[in-house]
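Go through this one:
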Amino acid sequence: MDTQSLLHDLAGLIPPQRLLTRPGQVAPFESDALTSYRVRPEAVVLVESQQEVIETVRLCHRYGVPFVARGSGTSLSGGSLPVKGGIVIALNRLNRILRIDPEQRLAVVEPGVINLNVSKAAAPFGLYYAPDPSSQPVCTIGGNLAFNAGGAHCLKYGMTSNHVLALKVVLADGEVVELGSPSLEGIGADLPGLFVGSEGLFGVALEVTLRLLPKPEAFKTVLAAYRSLKTAGDTVAEILRAGLLPGAVEIMDNLAIQAAQAAVNAGYPPDAAGLLIVELDGEAGSVAADFERLMPLIRQSGAYEVRIAADDAERLRIWQGRKSAFSAVGRLSPDYLVQDGVVPRSRLGEALEHIQALSQKYGIRVANVFHAGDGNLHPLVLFDGRQAGAYEQAEKLAHEIVELCIRLEGSITGEHGVGMEKRAFLPAMFAEADVDAMHAIRLQMDPLEIANRGKMFPN
């Protein structure tokens, strides 16, 4: 690894105001949203063109220096943590929406484009981009690709991988390749599907062709309050067992409700142990028919209060509370860890009971906010890092939640990725041969392992 030669050559490629090397300049990039992991990079390259990305990657390959591509840094798994002795390629300025094609219903964008901005650009044509993670107003498409982000509406519409048609990428050796095609009827191997969710281990996306959807004609948003969090979880299984496929099914517990109320005054029932949000969307006739089937299930489920959004303003207020929950929890605790495990929907209530028991065992509060429709848990383990040993105890609790998801035949991650945080659990979920096969693919794509080195796989 020849970092000094790399920096010398980068200085001839990147203007000094966009090649950051001083400690004060690179400090903001030493961590992503999982702030318990920190590494200070040797340099940060603020690229402004695809060619600058390509040349930077080629130089890294020449000198054997690891690099990490980074967007807004919202990763909650340490996925965009810098590598010691390596550099960060910051993609925020590569933020052009290159084309909106309303006839083909697609958008071609650069990786630094903010997720929500795709829908804003598509709105005049009656279209939108479906994946909607909670960090939608700030997270970038490149980061969404890396971790296969989902969001509240992924139950019906799928994850990022279901909406990426084609990619232009620079691989870790500097080769530029085109993957997929703009057609919905792709042929051959699903190479975009291989790249999406690879956590930056193969290279850097330069252009992304996204599938756009028509805006739903109608919505029905129902909020139901429960005295028991388990009952709210069990209701999800009943709704889906009845053959309904809502656009979104979300659950929040009382701690999350308190946080959302304090942050945005969402109007939630303040004493609910569990809050269920169910949203139907689609053609007006279909939504009306599904609503007639949904409401008896909700009323028979034990909910003590049921509200139906009367208009768009009330619907948006309900969602504002849910979308703000992660950041709002900061009002309840100076620090928190977020887990991202998945359990089968049929065992959702059981999982929530176990998490509550773990909270009592450790004497640590856990706020639950999650995509109930696909069993993607987001327990937030609250702690005060200023207290000796508090982080270590919180991490133990969080790890027990990951182990719980494995025992319940779920997954260690739904959309946040493995990153740094859950590397040790990969062998617990997959057989040794499976992990070896994954690593072999990584080595085929990047023999020097310079692209996001140290992520996903155990040391």
